[in-house]
Automatic annotation (TrEMBL):
This is F-box domain-containing protein. It comes from Nepenthes gracilis. Keywords: Signal. The lineage of its organism: Eukaryota, Viridiplantae, Streptophyta, Embryophyta, Tracheophyta. Residues 1-19 form the signal peptide. InterPro entries: F-box-like_dom_sf, F-box_dom. Residues 81-127 form the F-box domain.
Length: 390
């Protein structure tokens, strides 16, 4: 017990010094933690990472030894003479917390013990939030569960076909010729817990999971979508660090490529694209407020979210001392990306009886949400067009 406590104290001190960096550096140098920062997490590569056998554990031992000609001093030398698996819990945890996603993936292939440790949700939550937090929301998790369930069904069907084929072939050929190799791709995928954050992270990284999010100025800034944000299914391309989008099947263009991170956002509300959003801010709208409102071309199309600013009614001169617009039942909505004489420049809604309003000619305005967060407002201001649209 005393030895254990002494070990813990030692590692706490070591963590605050350069020795931990040295230790991790040594691990990397010894190729335990292969640098994979620029590597695509393809399933094939992940399969190569995974060698779930305790026979691999001795591979760890030699790399802990002091390298030839490398005179190490003090605590660093002491650390490097130990086995990784002998480290106290706290030290092990501190090391794992400092590993990148690629390093965790590699480390998970060393042995069953490290596999379980490296898959822990708490290790991946930080990485998930850091890279994906801004563009994924609650709907992503739901969609991902469906994605994994569909994969599982497909794998089961494939397995049944395979077993049927295996049965017929094995009656003809020697058994060893038809046994599938260990570490098969589907085996690795299915070995990841469906509800683990690591599995979701890898699914996002390899681009096979098309996740739901919203895209600003869809179709690469097409004038017909300027200052709007539309729902889409997106797939990440780690090679180009961009996204591909699939929009609703309605409309002229339904796909778009090379979408940068700054054009994406997680859906701010749970309202699906074909559902009218319940407006809960109608009595809180006053001139100068920023808002987003649903709008769609016709009732077969999905809604997009359009940015605007609350304006003054025509009866108001806009002077702060005379303005009574905030007490009126009618709210003036302005879309300043359009020219003053454009039919898209202004529209009105009624606070008391607002519902979907519009026509086939002008489209339909749906639910409205007031923007309270400065970050949201500044994002919209950042994509204002250089000149007004007709
Ligand atoms: Zn006014």
């Amino acid at each position: 017990m005393i030895l254990f406590l002494l070990s813990c104290c030692f590692f706490i001190l070591a963590l605050k010094s350069r020795s931990l960096k040295s230790f991790i550096s040594r691990l990397r140098q010894m190729r335990l933690l292969l640098p994979m920062f620029s590597v695509v997490f393809s399933v094939e590569q992940m399969r190569k990472c995974v060698v779930f056998s305790v026979l691999d554990v001795p591979m760890i031992m030699p790399m802990m030894k002091t390298p030839k000609g490398g005179a190490l001093n003090g605590s660093a030398a002491e650390v490097e003479e130990m086995s990784l698996l002998d480290l106290p819990e706290l030290a092990m945890e501190c090391i794992l917390e400092r590993l990148s996603p690629a390093e965790l993936c590699t480390m998970a292939g060393v042995c069953t013990y490290l596999r379980d440790r490296c898959r822990s949700d708490h290790l991946w939550e930080k990485h998930m939030k850091q890279k994906w937090g801004r563009v994924i929301g609650k709907t992503t998790y739901g969609a991902w569960q469906w994605h994994m369930a569909a994969n599982k069904r497909r794998n089961l069907l494939d397995a049944r076909k395979h077993n049927a084929l295996f049965g017929s072939i094995s009656s003809i050929w020697p058994l060893r010729l038809v046994i599938p190799r260990c570490g098969d791709k589907s085996e690795f995928e299915s070995s990841l817990p469906v509800d683990s954050i690591m599995a979701l992270y890898l699914s996002l990284e390899n681009g096979k999971f098309w996740f739901p999010a919203q895209v600003y100025n869809r179709e690469n800034g097409h004038a017909g979508f300027m200052l709007s944000c539309y729902d889409a299914k997106l797939s990440y391309n780690s090679r180009t660090n961009t996204f591909q989008a699939r929009y609703s099947p309605h409309g002229q263009h339904t796909t778009e490529e090379n979408i940068s991170w700054d054009r994406l956002r997680a859906p701010p509300v749970d309202t699906p694209a074909y559902v009218l959003h319940g407006s809960d801010c109608l009595y809180d709208l006053k001139p100068g407020d920023h808002f987003e409102i649903q709008w769609r071309r016709n009732k077969d199309y999905p809604y997009g979210w359009w940015y605007g600013v609350v304006g003054h009614l025509e009866s108001c001169d806009g002077h702060a001392y005379h303005c009574n617009c905030h007490n009126s039942e009618v709210v003036m909505l302005e879309f300043n990306q359009y020219a003053p004489d454009s039919r898209w420049r202004r529209t009105t809604i009624n606070r008391k009886s607002h519902h979907e309003e519009g026509s086939e000619a002008d489209g339909f305005y749906g639910g409205i949400r007031k923007l309270y967060e400065e970050e949201e407002i500044s994002t919209w201001k950042g994509i204002l067009p250089a000149k007004v649209l007709d």
